[in-house]
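User: For documentation purposes, I need each entry recorded in a consistent format: the amino acid sequence on its own, followed directly by the corresponding C-alpha cells. There are two entries in this batch. Please keep commentary to a minimum and don't merge the entries.

Assistant: Recorded as requested. Entry 1:
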Amino acid sequence: MRMGADRPKQFLPLLGEPVLLHTLRRFAEPTLQVARLVLVLPADQFATWQQLCAEHSVQIPHTVVAGGASRWASVRQGLAELKAHAEGVVAVHDGVRPLTPLTVINNTYTAAAEHGAAIAAVAPKDSVRGLSKDGSYALDRARLRLVQTPQCFELNLLRRAYQLPELPTFTDDASVVEDLHPIRLVEGDYRNLKITTPEDLLLAEALLQAR
C-alpha cells in the first residue's frame, strides 16, 4: 500500500518535523562541506514548504527551484541553478530519504571526485527472480545491487549527460550518465530508507529514536 496521506510524502511529520527537513539537515552537516543546497519541488508546493520552514524556524541556507514533469526534467532544472559553478561534484538525492548516514554521503562524494560518477547501492537480501513470457527464472543476487541515493557526479559530466534527449530508460541519474562514463558503486546502507509506504515512516521513526 502506498502512502494514503493528505500531503506529499516529503512533508509528512517524522518525529515532529517534515521528512524533507530531516533530509536537508543531513546534507547541511558542516563536516560534509556542501557549498550549495538546491531543493527541487513542484511549483504548487513552494508555499507549503515556506510555511513549514517558518513553523520549524529553518535556518539552513538553501534555494528552491521548480521541478519538471519527470525526474529527469526536475534534475535538469536543479542543474540549471548551478550554472554559476564551473566545476565540482554534485549529489542528487531523494527528498524522502531522511536517514542517509553521513558516511554514505561522504563516501559517495569522495568516490565521484576520484572516478567521476558514483552511486550508493546495497546487495539484495532476498532471492530475486526475473519475469519471462513463460513464467520466471532465478537471478544471481550476488551480481545484483539495489540502487539508493545519493548519486554523485562530476558537475560537467552530469551537465553533458543532461544535454542529451530524455529516454524512457532513464530511471535515475546513473542511467542518464552511464553511456558517457562508468558508474562506481559505493556501499550504501539498509537504513537509507526511501519513505514510500506507512510502514516505511514507522520504521524511520524507530531508527531515529534508536540513535
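Entry 2:
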Amino acid sequence: MASNPASRCCTVGYKHSGTPSGENTKVGGIDAYIAKPSAGKTHSQVAILYLSDILGIPHNAKLIADQIAANGYLTLMPDLFNSDQLPPNVTEDFDFVTWIREGTGGKNPHTTKEVDPIVRQCVDYLHNEHGVQKIGAFGYCFGAKYVCRFLKGDGLVDAGYVAHPSFVSEEEVKGIRGPLSIAAAEDDFVFPEEKRHLTEKLLREASCQYQITLYSGVSHGFAVRADLGKRGSKWATEAAFLQAIDFMDSWLLVENS
C-alpha cells in the first residue's frame, strides 16, 4: 500500500473552539453538512467535496468546512459511514480492518463498494443542484483514499488535497491523473517516510502534477485534531490549510483555468 491502514492515532486529538455556521442537510438519503460562502465572496461554479476521516462529521471537521467556505468555496461534507463513524479515542486493540469490511455489528460495511457511490452521488449533486463545473476534493485520513480514487482526469474531481492519508493502495496512486497536494506529518505510523517516498515515486511515474509538504513536530491527524495550544502544532495546522486553499485556487478558479 502507499499508506497503511488506520490505527488508534486516527481517532486521537483535540476539540477546537468555535461554533459551526453551516447547515446539516441531505443528499438523497445521505446525511451531509454544507457550508456556503458569504454573498460577494463566492467562487462561481466551483465547489469543494470534503471527505472526512473515520470520525465522520464531528465539530472540528465542520469548522474546517466553514473555513473553506470563508475562502469562497461551496463546501459539502457527506457522511461516508452510514451513521457508523467511530468515536474518539478507540481502544488500542480496536480492529479497524474488520470495521471497514463489516462495520459495527457486522452489517454496515465501509468498503469501496459502499463509499464510492456516496462520493459519486455528491459529485452529481454539486453539478446538478448547484451548477458546479469544477470540483476539488479534500481528504483527511480515510477520506484521502477516495480523493485518490476519484482523481482520474475524467472530470469527476478536478484537483485533490489530502492530509495524513490512510488505506490508500499503490494501484489507487498509480491511477491518479489530476493535480494532487499532500500534507504529511513527520511522526506518522500510517503514512511513514517509506510510504511518502513510494507515493512520490508513483506520482512521478504517473506524470501528474503533485506537491508533498512534510510538517515537522506533528503526528497523524494534525490537520484536523492538533493541540492548537502548542505553537508548532498550530502553525502546522494553519499552514496545511493554507497549502490546500492555495492549491485549489491555482487549479480550480475559472480565471486560472
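Summary note for entry 2:
The mean pLDDT is 91.
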